[in-house]
Specification:
The protein is of the alpha/beta class and 555 residues long. The chain has 23 helices and 16 strands. It has 3 domains: 232 residues, NADH:ubiquinone oxidoreductase-like, 20kDa subunit (Rossmann fold, 3-Layer(aba) Sandwich), CATH 3.40.50.700; 72 residues, Cytochrome-c3 hydrogenase, C-terminal domain (Cytochrome-c3 Hydrogenase, Chain A, domain 2, Irregular); 193 residues, Nucleotidyltransferase, domain 5. A hairpin with a 4-residue loop joins strand 4 and strand 5. The longest helix has 27 residues. About 1% of the residues have low confidence.
């Protein structure tokens, strides 16, 4: 489903107003304009939406909401109870009609069951909010209610009648903590058992603002918000949490807390070294905060746990350590796949391959993306060049205040490695387009030695026990004439991550994953543009299970 533009959303409001003004079902109400303005701001909509939204809420019947509790801890409801602008009372009396919520409704037992059954029989329109995961296999793990129905059965019968469904919290989105290994009750997120589109609102718990604003968005527009590839509302989950963090400048400067509650932590130092998973997490916590915008975990002195990401309990390691192999609960391995390339080709062989109507991604001394030109000579579609002299790279990083602080931290914590760089690199510029040299940069920083061969680096990448990439700020620009791969801003990242407690295995994994991802994207672009098949050219030292796993993505 294509995203709705602001113009389209505005048209929906104008249409609703026209319909409501001539409707017998309109319910004229007094709505607090401050609450409407707060919702419009939260949803990142233009200011001129506020008077239209005000009119809709003043005229529209309250949208009915059914809130189900499945396998959960009621933390999401606790978050809902702390809503402000609108607060809970204003929300349920003016904006929505909360038809069913086991924790806060007056009825219980048979009466509660009767209420929801009557709602379903009435064919009244409602939206469904689900808190908690579901046990669809051994359903007896979640037997609830006066009729002794399983959570799975209740979910199915209510979801079948719902106009829209919101998975409130990480448990209903992905299974949550009760789905952590070994998951004896076989809990999963509700999207795995329902056929309808599910709006995921993850978090453990989500902020009250993310819960309320999503319900009010549907009540206002009668449609789902724009969603990302994981079916999360873009307005709330469209940006990396780390990029909005008030401690990010300290991260860039290499200023890390060494332990909880030390002077550095109290003075605003980055918490990455004591386990913050902010760079891997997509949520708006720093912006909207919790408990009426009082605070959020990082502001309160504890690192982000990536609680809004799938399988956060299993896949992000010990929550007070960076993602190092020693802290991993699970292991990811890379199996050999069928070879898709060949040992290094000479010029004649490359020309012959290109004559076969193919484009070639070549890794032999230079990283090139080749296609057959008008003169039958290989043309390079890839524009990729960088400074490979580590000493000059570090000098360039230190040209601004944050970079100078970062380099000083590295010199202090990796004195032997820095001494190796000083002893083995001069002041001569060494431009390169060889991916091996890009990888060697990270290896030299981490080990204080030259990278012996590509296999060593690929071994390190394959041995990393997490599958989450540490962002490196590699940029790819594509057009019809070239693919420009810019790694200039990425050179500071290994310094930051090393100072923040990551190991060479993590750097090798992230560098490989991101570099190959961008090269594959450029290759696909060229192959589709040329309408040609894909071939690869690489030295024997690249013939490795991890490397093959990257090439296999193009199948």
């Amino acid at each position: 489903m294509a995203d709705l533009s602001n113009e389209e959303l505005k048209a929906l409001l104008e249409k609703r107003i026209a319909e409501l003004e001539n409707s017998d079902t309109k319910e004229e109400k007094v709505i607090n304009p401050e609450s409407v303005q707060a919702l419009i701001k939260t949803l990142a909509l233009p200011n001129d939406f506020a008077p239209l939204a005000q009119k809709v809420f003043e005229l529209a019947p309250r949208t009915s909401v059914v809130w189900l509790h499945l396998a959960e801890c009621t933390g999401c409801s606790e978050s809902l109870l702390r809503a402000s602008t609108p607060d809970l009372a204003e929300l349920v009396f003016d904006f929505i009609s909360l038809e069913y919520h086991e924790t806060i409704m007056a009825s219980a037992g048979w009466q509660a069951e009767h209420n929801i059954d009557e709602l379903l029989k009435s064919n009244k329109d409602f939206i469904l909010a689900v808190e908690g995961g579901v046990a669809p296999i051994d359903t007896y793990f979640l037997t609830i209610g006066a009729n002794g129905e399983s959570g799975y059965e209740i979910l199915q019968k209510v979801a079948n009648k719902a106009k829209a469904i919101f998975a409130m919290g990480t448990c209903s989105s992905y299974g949550g903590i009760q789905a952590a290994a070994p998951n004896p009750s076989k809990i999963c997120g509700i999207a795995e058992v329902l056929q309808q589109k599910i709006v995921q609102v993850p978090g453990c718990p989500p902020s009250d603002i993310n819960i309320v604003a999503n319900l009010c968005f549907y009540a206002l527009f009668q449609t789902l918000p724009n969603l990302d590839e994981k079916d999360r509302p873009k307005w709330a989950y469209g940006k990396c949490l780390h990029d909005m963090c008030e401690r990010k400048a300290k991260f860039e400067a290499g200023v890390f807390a060494q332990k909880f509650d030390d002077d550095l932590a109290k003075s605003g130092a980055c918490l990455f070294k004591v386990g913050c998973k902010g760079p891997y997490t997509y949520n708006n916590c720093p912006k909207v905060k919790f408990n009426a915008k009082t605070s959020w975990p990082v502001q309160g002195g504890h690192g982000c746990m990536a609680c809004s990401e799938a399988n956060f309990w299993d896949e992000f390691g010990f929550y007070e350590e960076p993602m190092k192999n020693l802290t991993s609960y699970v292991d990811f391995s890379f199996a050999n796949s069928d070879k898709k390339g060949s040992a290094s080709l000479d010029k004649a062989q490359i020309q012959s391959t290109l004559d076969d109507k193919r484009v070639i991604l070549s890794f032999d001394n230079e990283t090139r993306l080749l296609y057959k030109g008008l003169d039958d000579e290989p043309c390079d579609f890839l524009k990729f060049e960088f400074e490979s002299n580590v000493k000059l790279v570090l000098a360039n990083i230190a040209k601004n205040k944050l970079g100078a602080s970062l380099l000083e931290t590295y010199k202090k914590e990796f004195a032997k490695n820095y001494a190796f760089i000083e002893a083995n690199y001069d002041d001569t510029s060494r431009p390169s387009s060889d991916i091996f040299k890009f990888f060697e940069y990270a290896y030299v920083l981490a080990r204080g030695a030259f990278l012996p061969d590509m296999k060593t680096f690929l071994d390190l990448a394959a041995s990393y026990k997490f599958k989450h990439i540490s962002p490196l700020d590699i940029k790819l620009s594509l057009n019809d004439t070239e693919a420009k791969l810019d790694v200039s801003k990425s050179f500071r990242m290994p310094l930051i991550y090393l100072s923040g407690g990551l190991e060479i295995e993590a750097l090798a994994f992230s560098a490989c994953e991101l570099m190959f991802k961008n090269l594959n994207q450029a290759l696909k672009h060229l192959s589709q543009k040329q309408n040609k098949a894909i071939a690869f050219n690489f030295p024997q030292s690249y013939d490795h299970a991890f490397f093959q796993s990257q090439l296999a993505r193009l199948d």
